[in-house]
Amino acid sequence: MRFLDKKQKLDYLLSLICQQSTGTARQLSDRLCVSIPTAEKYLALLREDGHNIGYCTRRKTYYLIEIEK
53 by DSSP, 3-state: which? Predict the structure, then answer.
């Protein structure tokens, strides 16, 4: 995979997380056209970049956790 493809997928993933419309890990991997472990690796990369990402089991979606200042 080219770097640009990966960057585009990470940007798309972040936009899905912001909209709280990722779905489950399986649904997310299908949307990104990657395996579940790769989708999880992308989530880890976003977390390393400072994004505070959680998962809601009730709504079955990833979301950004707001940190109070």
Answer: strand
